[in-house]
Write a structure and sequence with these properties.
With 148 residues, the chain is an alpha+beta fold. The protein has two domains: 8-48, Arc Repressor Mutant, subunit A (Orthogonal Bundle); 61-139, Lrp/AsnC effector binding domain/regulation of amino acid metabolism (RAM) domain (Alpha-Beta Plaits). The protein is built from five helices and four strands. The protein has a four-stranded antiparallel β-sheet with strand order 2-3-1-4, with helices on one face. Strand 2 (95-100) and strand 3 form a beta hairpin.
């Protein structure tokens, strides 16, 4: 990541991209008072500088059938290499989010599942990762607020 801070126009562009990453350069340019080409150049620079790490598509889980969410907290042994452990977490298909935490719990992992049997299998897969010393699973009853 670059040490360069976004200027006020870059910050407005970033806010617009967060709101709608599919907005055209022209639409963004109209909002910030720049040409489409100038916006495209700024966004490329923001990407190269590490301010924009990527774009994603969020699917409605309800469209693919009944899906539930669980939060799994993992503690690991002190000898575990974070990068290797995090790669192993990312390799579990049900894992959709991994947060590195401070405190007695090392990671919080968000998993999606359809049946209690599937959750059981996911938890066992996480429990089997090398270095896991403790695991606690909390099924989510309902999502109250999401700003993503």
């Amino acid at each position: 990541m670059s040490n360069r801070r976004p200027d006020p126009v870059d910050e407005r562009i970033l806010r617009l991209l967060v709101r709608n990453a599919r907005a055209s350069w022209r639409e963004i340019g109209d909002e910030v008072g720049l040409s489409a080409n100038a916006v495209a150049q700024r966004v490329r620079r923001l990407e190269l500088d590490g301010w924009v790490r990527g774009y994603t598509t969020l699917l409605d889980p309800a469209l693919s059938g009944p899906v539930s969410t669980a939060l799994v907290q993992l503690s690991t042994a002190t000898h575990v290499l974070n990068s290797e452990f995090e790669e192993a977490l990312a390799a579990v298909p049900a894992v959709v989010e991994v947060l590195d935490l401070a405190g007695p719990v090392d990671y919080q992992v968000r998993v999606l599942y359809s049946t209690s049997r599937e959750l059981y299998e996911v938890v066992n897969a996480l429990r089997a990762l090398p270095g896991v010393t403790a695991i606690e699973t909390r099924p989510v009853l309902r999502e109250v607020l999401s700003r993503r």
